[in-house]
Amino acid sequence: MVACGLACWRCRWLLPLLLGLAIIMGIIALAGRGWLESESEPYVQQASLWESCTRGEEDLNWSCESLMDYGWGRAAAATYLVGFVILVICFALAVIAFSIEILRFNFVRGIGGLLFVVAAFQIIGLVIYPVKFTEEIPLIGDNMFSWAYGFGWASTVVVIGCAFFFCCLPNWEDEVLGNIKPTYYYSSPERAPYLN
């Protein structure tokens, strides 16, 4: 039987690995042009966190307008970006914490608290963007919030999950460090005559 409990050294790297995955998804969300796209042909509108682009049905060139000219655009970009920067810091702290032989579990719990702050910043940015975008930018045709916006939410969901695990990990300090002696259950033949 092969088992990888919390005491397994390799399993301790799962949380930093998940944070690395959240960083990759955050990079895709920050760089992607698919926050908002036209739902069907003709594809006449697309937007990123930074700009909104439109074009005519027969035109091949996009005409882009910066969302940084709007207060809500700066707020959405700033809150998501601040959350992303704190996420990168948490990743570095997690790698350091799990590299040390003797973990400082209050340090790990602090990383969990910072991850909740990351989630709050990212959620604020991800909520401001669609609400204000649909109010202030004229939409052409049928549009949908698309793949890059979805990567932003996926990053946030992973961060929330990791925050809970980082906060709860100190409760299993002995299991993680392998300090628990195994418990053996046995009975004598007098107590269990059916084993004979």
Q: CATH class, please?
A: Mainly Alpha
Q: Compute the CA-based radius of gyration.
A: 24 Å
Assigned CATH architecture:
Up-down Bundle
> What is the number of independent domains?
1
Low-confidence stretches: 1-7
The percentage of residues in β strands lies in 5-15%
Q: Structural class per helix/strand content?
A: alpha+beta
Task: Please state the overall shape, judged from the principal axes of the Cα atoms.
Answer: elongated
At the third CATH level, what is the topology name? Butyryl-CoA Dehydrogenase, subunit A, domain 3
The DSSP helix count reads 5
| Alpha carbon gap, first and last residue | 26 Å
Quaternary arrangement of the chains shown? single chain
Number of strands: 5
In spatial order, strands of the major sheet run 4-3-2-1-5
Q: What series of H and E elements makes up the topology?
A: HEEEEHHEHH
The level of helicity is 40-55%
Largest sheet data:
5 strands, antiparallel
What does the average pLDDT come to? Answer: 82
Family: Belongs to the TMEM47 family.
Membrane topology: Multi-pass membrane protein
InterPro entries: P53_induced, PMP22/EMP/MP20/Claudin
Transmembrane segments: 12-32, 77-98, 110-131, 151-172
Summarize the structure.
The chain is 54% helix and 9% strand. The protein is an alpha+beta fold and 196 residues long.
